[in-house]
Amino acid sequence: MLWSAGALVVLIAAVTILSNGNAAPETPVRLSGDFGRTRMLAAERGAAEAQAMAVQPTPDGTGSASGPTAPAKSGVTGSGTVSPAHAPTIPATPTLPATAVWPLQGRVAMGYGWVFDPTGRYWFYHTGLEIAATPGAAVRAALPGAVAAVEREASGGFTIVVTSPQSVVTTYTGLAATSLAVGSTVGQGTMIGTMPQAGAGGVKLGFSIRRAGQPIDPASLLPAATAGASRHS
């Protein structure tokens, strides 16, 4: 009987201990910053693994039909590549010909750079060429482009300005006549006007080229003398 009472006491104590072990603590357990960060990274890694498992490779190397695919857009396939049948048309950017053509046949009466004016007896920087021409000769566009200006000179002649790709502008002065209008386009070698039949000191065409607003030596774009005007005085 004494043993039974002792066993009962032990049994009650064991039940009490087990009950206290399963009870929730009075205050919540706060996770440390490092442990919280570790748990978050583990959750992110688990989500990534689940997404990877959802897309199983097929024999053709693409993801399975059950996996996520990019939404198809107009002209774009599910793989993100442009369908040739719906590829957008990109307009070609105009380019400048590698070589200009001489605007007319003739002798270069005044070149580019520092020249001496025997009349005024002073030096000045000439930003173009003066080409001696045959009276009435045709003047042709050295480069293709759009006509930006057709101006009447004080002498009665015409100045024509043509803008070309890559910020290149060609200017022709001293023409007697032209049929061009502002906004029209000209091809390389297209006739843009004619020279006068006569003029004081001979008939000369003023010709200059500017790139991005800065004058450049026309000789840097013009071919050899045999292809155009003579460069010998």
So what's the CATH class of the domain at 107-219?
Mainly Beta
Low-confidence stretches: 21-36, 55-84
Order of helices and strands: HHEEEEEEEEEEEE
Count of DSSP strands:
12
Specify the CATH homologous superfamily of the domain at 107-219.
Glucose Permease (Domain IIA)
Count of DSSP-assigned helices: 2
Stated plainly, the CATH topology of the domain at 107-219 is called: Glucose Permease (Domain IIA)
Q: Main sheet, how many strands, which sense, barrel?
A: 8 strands, antiparallel
Query: Strand percentage, roughly?
Result: 25-35%
State the end-to-end distance. 144 Å
The shape, in one word, is globular
In short:
The protein has 233 residues and is of the alpha+beta class.
What can you tell me about this protein's structure?
The protein has 233 residues and is α+β, with helices and mostly antiparallel strands. It has a domain at 107-219: Distorted Sandwich (Glucose Permease (Domain IIA)). 18% of the residues lie in helices and 26% in strands. It is built from 2 helices and 12 strands; from the N terminus they run ααββββββββββββ. The strands form 3 sheets. Strands 1, 4, 6, 7, 8, 9, 11 and 12 form an 8-stranded antiparallel sheet that branches. Strands 2-3 form a two-stranded antiparallel sheet. Strands 5-10 form a two-stranded antiparallel sheet. A hairpin with a 3-residue loop joins strand 7 (158-164) and strand 8 (168-175). The termini are far apart. 18% of the residues are buried. Residues 21-36 and 55-84 have low confidence and may be disordered.
